[in-house]
Amino acid sequence: MDDPYAQSAEYIDLLIADAWGLFAPGLSEALHELRGETGVTVDLGAGTGRGVAVICASLPDGSPVLAVEPSPALRAVLLARAHEDERLSSRVTVSSADALGVPLPDRVRALVAMNMIGHLSPDDRHELWAGVVPRLVRGGRVVVNLAPPTRPVEVPRTRMASRSVGSLTYEGWASARAVGERQIRWRMTYLTRSPEGSPVSEVAVDYDWWVMDEAELREELAEHGLTMRQIGHPDAGLYVATRAQD
Ligand SMILES: C[S@@+](CC[C@H](N)C(=O)[O-])C[C@H]1O[C@@H](n2cnc3c(N)ncnc32)[C@H](O)[C@@H]1O
């Protein structure tokens, strides 16, 4: 796999931390509703494991989690987070597969796909939903977020996040342009600044991202028998879907 995170991995955990302040309550709410069910919770594209930590805190002790993360550099951070904390190490299994290659458990309590669905083409998503839906336990759910833009438009260069560690400050900047009817190309620039503000290091990464809006996601999930609703803070763009018959 072409890994868009290979060069930027050192920045991802600290620069996604603030966003997780917005996502965590909604994800937690979606999973709390499932406390009586058994089965594996799958975190697809688990990144550095911030979602895995929320999942483990939201479900009863011992309920298993499969964290799927194809990027070796991000997986290293994920494994460090998982093995350092007993509440995670006893229940989190880390897979190096990708979304379509991972053998899914027979009973899926929830499938979580945070900040990653744009990596999958419409065909890939259909294949994913077709594989997941028959494995969902009764009341099982799919939790997914849509990040702006939800249409293929230009995004002017914007500072997305900034964090200081020690005497250095880390910044993430993003811009995007449309590269197709449903795709944009992100240009992510990550900077490390000295206390005086001058750049110490800089890395730029480009990757393509499939965009869709809420109506398109609703229609796509409905084709696979899932009914979707928004959950959590309105700015989180977070949705939970269950099988219509559950
Ligand atoms: C922006 S990061 C989000 C990470 C994490 N979910 C979070 O919210 O903190 C996107 C993640 O999707 C993963 N990813 C990209 N393509 C993937 C694929 N085809 N299957 C599974 N994960 C993928 C990346 O390696 C990366 O970890």
Descriptive notes:
The chain is an alpha/beta fold. It folds into two domains: 9-146 and 212-243, Vaccinia Virus protein VP39 (Rossmann fold), CATH 3.40.50.150; 155-210, N-terminal domain of TfIIb (Single Sheet). The protein is built from six helices and eleven strands. The chain has helices at residues 9-32, 50-58, 72-84, 86-89, 122-132, 214-223; strands at residues 40-44, 65-68, 92-95, 108-113, 136-145, 155-165, 168-178, 183-193, 199-210, 226-230, 238-243. It has a seven-stranded mixed sheet with strand order 3-2-1-4-5-11-10. A hairpin with a 2-residue loop joins β6 (155-165) and β7. α1 runs parallel beside α2. It is globular, with a radius of gyration of 18 Å. 36% of the residues are buried. The model has no long low-confidence stretch (mean pLDDT 96). The protein binds S-adenosylmethionine. S-adenosylmethionine binds next to α2.
In short:
The chain has 246 residues and is of the alpha/beta class.
Which terms would index this structure?
single chain, 246 residues, alpha/beta, Rossmann fold, N-terminal domain of TfIIb, seven-stranded mixed beta sheet, four-stranded antiparallel beta sheet, 11 strands, 35% strand, binds S-adenosylmethionine
Topology:
Layout: H1 9-32, E1 40-44, H2 50-58, E2 65-68, H3 72-84, H4 86-89, E3 92-95, E4 108-113, H5 122-132, E5 136-145, E6 155-165, E7 168-178, E8 183-193, E9 199-210, H6 214-223, E10 226-230, E11 238-243
Parallel strand pairs: 1-2, 1-4, 2-3, 4-5
Antiparallel strand pairs: 5-11, 6-7, 7-8, 8-9, 10-11
Helix pairs in contact: 1-2
Bound molecules: S-adenosylmethionine.
The site of S-adenosylmethionine has 19 residues, from helix 2.
